[in-house]
Design a protein that fits this description.
Blueprint: E1 2-4, E2 17-19, E3 24-30, E4 36-43, E5 60-65, E6 77-85, E7 92-102, E8 105-114, E9 120-129, E10 135-140, E11 144-146, E12 151-159, E13 167-173, E14 186-189, H1 220-231
Parallel strand pairs: 3-6
Antiparallel strand pairs: 1-2, 3-4, 5-6, 7-8, 8-12, 9-10, 9-11, 9-13, 13-14
């Protein structure tokens, strides 16, 4: 900033103090795709305040920022969010898109994504259930292999079951012999065309929903009591006797 003190026309010893202003630097926080989350101006040797990290993609967890240059700032810096795979024992994640009945069976549509670290082999297992969780039928897909970070969308599995199912579960297992799950279980409601409400109970081959309805009218006694309360008035207080 300059010098503090007068140093011209000197006639005696003097002490002149140097004055400095701290520089200001720009700290920028970005997501994994380099989209800016936050920018902050920070004085030299101060620290920026890190923002809440963006929500992790399915299968990943936030692992921190790629640099600590936002602490004890020495210059301009760009800080990027980093993520790692959440669970190495569950190397794939699935998203169930829909399950619907078509003609003589159910079609399950789903997406699958592999972890970024290793190739994964497996097969999908689908179970159809009632609303109370009773298993109705199940089927398996053909074996597949996914490369590192590979993602496939719109995969379909056909379940040849003609009864009424309410829910579908899907998960990935690692092989035909062991059948160890390598994904979490995804559940979705079956898309159904419900009939109109009827007083007649369908046969037991249908998934049945029930409801209870009530009708009422005010009882005569309650109505009369209410009318009496409405007609009630305050009577005047009697005057005191003369002494």
């Amino acid at each position: 900033m300059g010098w503090k003190g007068e140093y011209s026309n000197v006639t005696s010893d003097r002490t002149i103090e140097a004055q400095f202003k701290r520089n200001t630097y720009k700290i920028t926080f970005c997501d994994k795709d380099d989209k800016v989350i936050k920018s902050e101006s920070v004085l030299f040797e101060d620290s920026a305040t890190a923002p809440e990290p963006p929500e992790a993609e399915k299968g990943y967890v936030f692992a921190g920022w790629d640099s600590e240059d936002y602490k004890n700032v020495q210059g301009n810096a760009t800080i990027k969010a980093t993520y790692v795979w959440a669970n190495d024992d569950l190397p794939v994640v699935i998203t169930l898109n829909k399950c619907e009945f078509k003609d003589d069976g159910y079609i399950v549509n789903y997406d699958i994504k592999n972890n970024p670290n290793k190739r994964t082999k497996g097969r999908a297992l689908v179970s159809l259930k009632t609303s109370k969780g009773k298993l109705l039928d199940s089927t398996e897909s053909k074996a597949f292999s996914l490369g590192k970070g590979e993602e496939k969308k719109g995969i379909e599995i056909y379940v040849p079951y003609e009864g009424a199912a309410t829910k579908a579960d899907l998960y990935i297992i690692n092989g035909f012999s062991k059948g160890i799950p390598i994904s979490e279980v995804a559940t979705i409601d079956v898309a159904r065309n419900l009939s109109e409400w009827s007083p007649e109970k369908p046969d037991d081959n249908n998934e049945i929903e029930t409801r209870t309805e009530y009708r009422h009218t005010s009882s005569p006694r309650a109505a009369a009591s209410s009318a009496m309360r409405r007609r009630k008035v305050d009577l005047p207080q009697p005057e005191p006797p003369l002494m």
